[in-house]
Amino acid sequence: MDRHGGPHRASTTPWYRVVEMWLILVLLSSAVIGSFALLGTALRHPDRHLVVPNDVPRSSQLPPLAPAASVRIDAGHDPARAARAPRP
What per-residue confidence (pLDDT) applies to 6? Predict the structure, then answer.
């Protein structure tokens, strides 16, 4: 009860008069603007190709997706001729 004997009413301050709401609005809008600025910068600047001096190719440390096909290569084997040969 308030001093007039009626129920206590909460003050109804408009949102634009609350300082914290302006702070939230400024922080959220700066985050959105910063995200678009970062996206624009990333699209304008492609990745550079890095060259490392004295670098040698290395095999991958990842296992292969499928086992390699075992092909026996003979000295007298011609794959092109074998492909043209008639099959029984």
Answer: 60
The C-alpha angle 5, 7, 9, rounded to 5 degrees, equals 125
Whether 25 maps to a domain, the answer reads: yes
CB distance 28 to 21 below 8 Å: no
Cβ atoms of 2 and 8 within 8 Å: the answer is yes
Domain range holding 40? 15-47
Token pair 């997706």 is found at 65
Length reported for the chain: 88
- Is the pLDDT at 75 greater than 60? The verdict is no
CA separation for the pair 73, 82 (Å, rounded): 12
Q: Given CA atoms 55, 61, 62, 68 in this order, what sign does their dihedral have? A: positive
Is 38 within 8 Å of 31 (Cβ atoms)? no
